[in-house]
């Protein structure tokens, strides 16, 4: 172990590191949006769910997203 230890809050990230972290988060969100958009297209145009059913499907996706956010906070 090193004799010099740094406090994690005192360490500054470079701009390059900040951009790298941002790109990985952006890629994850882009994947989620693509899949969510496709599943709504599938439900309405391929599976022929009526507009009221599509609203229900969108609500289910929204509730699942909130549940995921809450569970991620409680696990961390």
* N-C termini distance: 26 Å
Share of residues in strands: under 5%
**Number of continuous helical runs:** 2
Give me the Rg, rounded.
20 Å
Largest beta-sheet characterization = none
Low confidence ranges? none
Shape: elongated
**Portion of residues within helices:** over 70%
Tally of DSSP β-strands: 0
Structural class: mainly alpha
Give the helices and strands as they follow along the chain: HH
On the 0 to 100 scale, the average pLDDT is 84
Task: Explain how this protein is built.
75% of the residues lie in helices and 0% in strands. The longest helix is centred in the middle third of the chain and has 32 residues, at 15-46. The mean pLDDT is 84. The protein is elongated. It contains 2 helices and no strands.
Main traits of this protein?
single chain, 76 residues, mainly alpha, 2 helices, 75% helix
Summarize the structure.
The chain is mainly alpha-helical and 76 residues long. Helix content is 75%, strand content 0%.
List the helices and strands and how they pair.
Blueprint: H1 15-46, H2 51-75
């Amino acid at each position: 172990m090193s004799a010099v230890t740094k406090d994690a809050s005192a360490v500054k990230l470079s701009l390059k590191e900040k951009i790298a972290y941002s790109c990985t988060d952006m890629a994850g969100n882009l994947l989620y949006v693509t899949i969510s958009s496709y599943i709504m297209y599938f439900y309405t145009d391929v599976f022929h769910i009526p507009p009221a059913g599509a609203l229900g499907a969108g609500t289910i996706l929204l509730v699942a997203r909130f549940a995921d956010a809450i569970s991620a906070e409680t696990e961390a």
